[in-house]
Each structure stands twice: as structure tokens, then as C-alpha cells.
Write a structure and sequence with these properties.
globular; binds pyridoxal-5'-phosphate; 40% helix; 15% strand; Aspartate Aminotransferase, domain 2; 14 strands; three-stranded antiparallel beta sheet; 2 domains
Length: 392
């Protein structure tokens, strides 16, 4: 089936956090302006229809007319679909017993922090990074230990020297890895992953790898799951259909935890969680039949990245931008305009009425940057960029 991602599907008025949640957007400090004319390109979900096999599976589920408790534990197809996907894509053989369902990736981060650290312990992250990484640490009374990424000519790399020091400190017990990295878009390569895992293994630091953007990389990039490069047993991998197939509202994350002690500790923290019948059926359809859609959506997103790059070069030439290796987020550097970041914000959010995310949301290292989410019809992206260009 050929999908038409140019088609604009109206999401306003559907209770969408991206299109409707004006109060939340103000409350979280994302934008002081949000109205019916705003173009929101901040939340990481897609304005595209889901894979048709997922839609069909959900219809079948609705038609059953009963939405009682369901359990993947009695539904082997659920596990087989996950195992099949990771084997086909990453040659990763996952044992069914190692798969732990969680309603959300952020929820799983919170659970992992509680399960594997104590209040006051240090948790390492790599700023600038997805904001809930900080929340999961601070809300649980742990300390943020920042192994900040180093940026050179728009390319980000890991400060291994600093990571060695921080991992060697016995107060630091856990490392939250974002792989691929949101917002900087790096897809960590084999050497980088091996070195991080080697350091953590040496110092007995538990690694939680949030890999939910792993399937959404540029077509010429290669994603490698952390677990595939390292024998470090203390790795928790978070996977999800949420981003890959645009079903975040169905809440379906799966943690892969091989070590039994860690798995039990995690499960104890999270309690006995069951996916809804909708999440279960969506996962099976997505992993078994969603490949064709994913290939097409990746091509479209790559096209949006090319469009963004060309547009910026012509119309906003002071913005520094590189097409990222992974994720569907662009990370734009506005610092060469020489403006205060509040003024950049005012021009984009208030004057142009385009809602992005200020780089500072991801840590102070993000100051002067703006994050833009690209999985939207090109006409919407074009209008947003036109509006922005008029302000600079
Ligand atoms: C790195 C990362 N982790 C987790 C999430 C949210 O995942 P979930 O909706 O499954 O909690 C996002 C969403 O943008 C993300 O970028």
C-alpha cells in the first residue's frame, strides 16, 4: 500500500497534547502563546496516519465489543512479534522471559531509578538530553551527574575521559543512555557503545539504554542496540512501538532485562502491569506487518530533513544545522544571529506562532538551540518555516 503523508489530518479538537493542550504548554513553560493559529512542532509524535495493519487490528479489537482485562502473558503472538522484529533488524535474539511490559518509557525510567539506586545516589546522563531524564532522577531524590556531550563543528561526541571519572565514583550507580540521542540526533556507533559499556562494566554501573528512537534513523544510518555490543549483564534496554509506528497514545513499552535480579527488582517497582487489548493488538500488527509503512515514513521524513536543510541555507542562513543520523528531530543552532535566546524565542513562538522547544529545555548546554519535530506534512513544515523566516 502507498501512503500519502502529504495529506493533512486535522488533529485539533481531538484532545491531542500537541495540537490542543494550550494550558499544559503554558504551564510547562514551552510557550506563552498557543492558539488556533499556532503550528506546533514540539511534541515527538507524528501527524501521519498509522500503518494500515495497525488500524485494521484496532478495528477488529473494537468489534469484539468487550474491552476487559487482557494479558500478553497468555498471548504468545505478543512476544513472538517483539522477538521477530529485533531478530530481523538487529540480529538480536531476545528471550521471552526477559521482556517486561511497561505502559511508558518515561515510566520505565522512573521505575529503573527507583529499582537500581537509592536516594542521594548519582545518576549519569549526557546533556543536552530529553527533559524527563532529569525528572526521573530529581523527582526521586537522586543526583544528576552530567557527562556533557562535546560539540565540535555541529557534531556531538562523548567525553570519555569525563565518563571514566564519573563512573569510577562509587556514589554514581546508574547511567541513563539515550540511544539514538534526543535531541542531538547521534546514532552511537559500535566503538562508542562498546567504550561506554566497558567503562560502566568496569565500575559496576547499571546502564539503562532508552532505545525508543532506534528504528527511526536516516536510511543510510545503522543503529546497534547497546546489548549487542557488550557482555555487561547490567543493561536494561527500553524499546517501544510508540515512536516507531506513531502509537504513543496506546502506551506500549517493553524493557529487555536479562539479569534476573535486576528484572525482579524492576518488576517489583513497577508492579504487575498489563497492556490494554488495543496496545497488544497494535504491537503484534506493527511489528509483524508495519515494515512497509516504516520504510515509506522514513523516506518522507528524510525528505523533510532535506527540505529543512535547503530552506535554512536559503532563508535563515545564520542557522547552523546538520541532518541528524537518527530521530525525527532537528537541532538548530541560532547562536550566530547574535540574539539573546529569549529574543529568538519571542520571534519564533510569539511572533511567528510556531511552537518548537527551546534548547535550554534539554539542559544549559542547549542554550541558543531550537528543537523541531519533523514528522508532519511538508505543507505544514513549509508554512512554519516561512513564518519563522519573516522574523529574522
Ligand atoms: C528519548 C525518549 N524517551 C522517551 C520518550 C517518551 O516515551 P513514552 O511516551 O513511551 O513514555 C521520548 C519522547 O519523546 C523520548 O524522546
Amino acid at each position: 500500500m502507498i501512503y500519502n503523508f502529504d495529506k493533512v489530518i486535522k488533529r485539533r479538537g481531538t484532545g491531542s497534547i500537541k495540537w490542543d493542550a494550550a494550558e499544559l504548554i503554558k504551564k510547562f513553560g514551552i510557550s506563552e502563546r498557543f492558539d488556533d493559529e499556532s503550528i506546533p512542532l514540539f511534541v515527538a509524535d507524528m501527524d501521519f496516519p498509522c500503518p494500515q495493519p495497525v488500524v485494521d487490528a484496532l478495528h477488529r479489537c473494537v468489534d469484539r465489543q468487550i474491552y476487559g482485562y487482557s494479558t500478553h502473558l497468555a498471548h504468545p503472538e505478543y512476544f513472538e512479534a517483539i522477538q521477530g522484529w529485533f531478530l530481523r533488524h538487529y540480529s538480536w535474539e531476545i528471550n521471552q522471559e526477559h521482556i517486561v511490559y511497561s505502559p511508558g518509557t518515561v515510566e520505565a525510567l522512573y521505575m529503573a531509578i527507583k529499582a537500581f539506586t537509592k536516594p542521594g545516589d548519582g545518576v549519569i546522563l549526557q546533556a543536552p538530553v530529553y527533559r524527563p531524564f532529569y525528572g526521573s532522577i530529581l523527582d526521586n531524590g537522586r543526583k544528576v551527574i552530567n557527562n556533557a556531550l562535546i560539540m565540535e563543528n555541529g557534531h556531538y561526541r562523548i567525553d570519555f575521559e569525563d565518563l571514566r571519572l564519573k563512573a569510577a565514583d562509587p556514589a554514581n550507580k546508574l547511567f541513563l543512555l539515550c540511544s539514538p540521542h534526543n535531541p542531538v540526533g547521534r546514532v552511537w556507533n559500535r566503538e562508542e557503545l562498546s567504550e561506554m559499556a566497558y567503562i560502566c562494566h568496569k565500575h559496576d554501573v547499571v546502564m539503562v539504554a532508552d532505545e525508543i528512537h532506534g528504528d527511526l534513523i536516516r536510511q543510510n544510518a545503522t543503529f546497534i542496540p547497546l546489548r549487542k555490543v557488550s557482555g555487561h549483564e547490567k543493561i536494561i534496554t527500553l524499546t517501544a512501538i510508540n515512536k516507531t509506528f506513531n502509537v504513543a497514545g496506546l502506551h506500549c513499552t517493553n524493557a529487555i532485562i536479562e539479569d534476573e535480579t535486576l528484572r525482579q527488582a524492576f518488576s517489583k517497582e513497577s508492579g504487575f502491569k498489563l497492556p490494554s487489548p488495543f496496545a497488544m493488538e497494535a504491537l503484534i500488527a506493527a511489528y509483524n506487518e508495519g515494515q512497509d509503512w516504516l520504510d515509506q515514513v522514513k523516506t518522507y521524513i528524510d525528505g523533510n530533513f532535506d527540505f529543512l536543510k535547503n530552506f535554512l541555507e536559503k532563508r535563515l542562513p545564520e542557522v547552523k544545522f546538520r541532518i541528524p543520523e537518527g530521530t525525527y528531530m532537528g537541532w538548530m543552532d541560532f547562536r550566530d544571529y547574535g540574539l539573546d535566546s529569549k529574543e529568538v524565542h519571542r520571534r519564533i513562538y510569539v511572533e511567528a506562532n510556531v511552537i518548537l522547544e527551546d534548547g535550554e529545555m534539554f539542559g544549559e548546554e542547549g542554550a541558543g538551540f531550537q528543537r523541531i519535530c519533523l514528522p508532519t506534512p511538508r505543507s505544514i513544515l513549509e508554512e512554519a518555516l516561512e513564518r519563522m523566516a519573516k522574523q529574522f
